[in-house]
Amino acid sequence: MADLGCGNGVLAIASARANPDARYLLVDESAAALASARRSWTENLGQRAAAFTLGDGLADAAAGSLDVVLCNPPFHAGTTVDEWVGVRLLEQARRALRPGGALYVVANRHLRHHRYLREAFDAVEVLGADARFSALRAVR
Questions:
Q1: Residue 135's closest CA among 94, 105, 103, 91?
Q2: Which of 36, 86, 81 is nearest to 57 (CA)?
């Protein structure tokens, strides 16, 4: 299971609590974010094993190598608002997922990520929403 653009690791940590046997890969392009994720993981899950990777998302992941990807896509590049930064990560997730694999997304509602998901995935389900965010499950 991968937490793509993990930030402080909250998605992976919440998932790991519910899935004690799952293995996790937390990936971010920010060294500071990855350090925060590592601290959060240890504070919340102790010595439970996880891999932490500094890099360009899942660009180097083998196609079809993952069962589940978690992602709260960013909507900025530096200080510039750019929703396509997030779409690029969603594209990486789709490529890395095996057929039947699931992408769980916490998406800002003002962005068009749901449209991309509906075009690129076989099935998309809204798991929950409020005025600012939607939680979605997309199956490849």
A1: 105
A2: 86
- Rounded Cα distance, 6 and 27, in Å: 6
Contact call for residues 69 and 97 (beta carbons, < 8 A): yes
Nearest to 24 by CA among 64, 84, 69: 69
C-alpha span between 133 and 115 (Å, rounded): 14
Could you count the other beta carbons within 10 Å of the beta carbon of residue 21? 5
Tokens 């057929």 correspond to 99
The tokens describing 45, both together, are 């899950």
Find the DSSP H helices in the chain: 10-18, 31-45, 84-96, 113-120
Does the pTM of the predicted model rise above 0.70? Answer: yes
pLDDT per residue as tens digits for the range 65-118: 999 999 999 765 556 656 677 899 999 999 999 999 999 999 988 888 888 999
